[in-house]
Amino acid sequence: MTASPWSPSAVALDRVAYRRARTRRSVGVAAVSTAAVTGVAVLALVSSPGWPRVRQSFFDAQVAWASLPRVAEGLWLNVRVMAFSAVAILVLALLLAVARTMRGPVFFPLRAAATAYVDVFRGLPLLLVLLLVGFGVPGLRLQGVPTNNVVLGGLALVLTYSAYVAEVFRAGIESVHPSQVAAARSLGLTHAQTLRTVVLPQAVRRVVPPLLNDLVALQKDSGLISILGAIDAVRAAQVQTAQYANFTPYVVAGVLFVMLTIPLTRLTDALARRSGWLGALGGVSGGGALR
Amino acid sequence: MTVPVLSVEGVRKSFGEHLVLDGVDLQVDEGQCVVLIGASGSGKSTLLRAVNLLEEVDDGVIRLEGEDITDPRRDANAIRARMGMVFQAYNLFPHMRVLDNVSLASRLVHKVPRAQAQEAAAAMLERVGLAEKARAFPDELSGGQQQRVAIARALVSAPRLMLLDEVTSALDPELVGEVLALLGELKAEGMTMIVATHEMSFARHVADEVCFLHDGRVHERGTPEQVLGDPAELRTQEFLRRLVQP
């Protein structure tokens, strides 16, 4: 089928011209207001009585440059801890979520244990888990149990985060409509087959954006393993701060963390937008602002 | 005397205080098409779901080929695999391609090797006139096409009995015909089926028996000419009148 020849009518051209003018005006307003807000903020900062001192001790370019290699080296440890923990968290959390949906009296202990686990580790502050695992586990002096503070720090992250992520998975599992289960069971699939082939694939797709959100949080919280003495970015910045008697390395570490998380948050946003058409029931797609 | 494919004997089911099935009896013989009519909430869907063991009945017995399937000692999955159920809202699996939707039960329930299962699924899609949609995802199809896929998915396990729950109620009027035509063909091929529907012309032309359900009871049953043309019960007359002039 070929489209009939079309040239826009006067009304259509007028609408296009009007919208274009509106867009130009919006861009202008945004630029002016951004400049104004930034200007006021900078002015307030720079004119504050303590600014010269603060600039000297937090924004020293020389110290920043000198401390960068060490802090970056520390950050590499954060990235590795995060990557290994993330994999372990996903596996453990999925097992916990599935255990909580198991039916039948045989699985009662499993179901109860999973529920108790999630209750406990969602309630415990991460900092406490780190201290308890980091100093408590080596104290047991058990054969074959790791005493490396990086491994123990990662273990604490896995313990805490898998409780949260298990709840994300469970929410996804419960969001799959019962009619999907009915359709699968009506075909003769067992409970386990239904879970594996029908429920979980849809559930996991739906929870990808919140999972990435947790991954961003994990990336930052990997900095907490520094309290066990692991030389990560935070710890390295602390050392450098002491060496130069200047707080700039903290700012350097902060900037590096932000640079690491921005790509991940953008990816999360993009996937969340896409989920509008990822699942048939993926929710209302964003869409532009309506007049 | 031959054993009926399905017999429902005094089935009761309530959801909390609400009694949905109040002692329903039903018999479906080989190759028969029984049509259930009745207002929304009359118990048509619940009856079909109970037959498919998607709802547990409170009392009564349901027999499939003479065997009591409401006996909790029997393997419900194996029994469900002997029936094909089609739902009002299609309930296709949105994350699977059409071919995988249709071949899933063969692979997992009947343990047919993948290649063979897909071949059978492709043949079944051909049968419902959707061979070219095998690689599509369900949301790329029209409602009528999705419902035909759902019918193919139920048919691929060669069921002894098809249960069709208002399968055209969610469709646009111009798509209803293609699905009803397919059901008519199935009936002509000798499929045994129970159809809950509001399509009176389908009931008139295809059904061997029409059952009118009201408040969880079969109020009237008989040939389509009898029940639809000359209903004996006042409630049936009222129901049919409301259908004609809404």
Report the biggest beta sheet of chain B as strand number plus sense, adding barrel if it closes: 6 strands, mixed
The level of helicity of chain A is over 70%
Strand order of the largest sheet of chain B: 6-7-8-3-9-10
Low-confidence sequence ranges of chain A: 277-289
Global Rg of chain B: 18 Å
- Low-pLDDT segments of chain B: none
What is the mean pLDDT of chain A? 88
Oligomer: heterodimer
User: Structural class from helices and strands of chain B?
Assistant: alpha/beta
Termini separation of chain B comes to 44 Å
- Tally of individual helices of chain B: 9
Helix content of chain B: 25-40%
Mean residue pLDDT of chain B: 93
Order of helices and strands of chain B: EEEHEEHEHHHEHEHEEHH
Q: Strand-and-helix sequence of chain A, N→C?
A: HHHHHHHHHHH
Protein chain pair with the most extensive contact, residues per chain: A-B, 20 and 26 residues
The count of helical stretches of chain A stands at: 11
Instruction: Assess the beta-strand content of chain A as a share of residues.
Output: under 5%
| Dominant shape of chain A | flat
Q: Major β-sheet of chain A, in short?
A: none
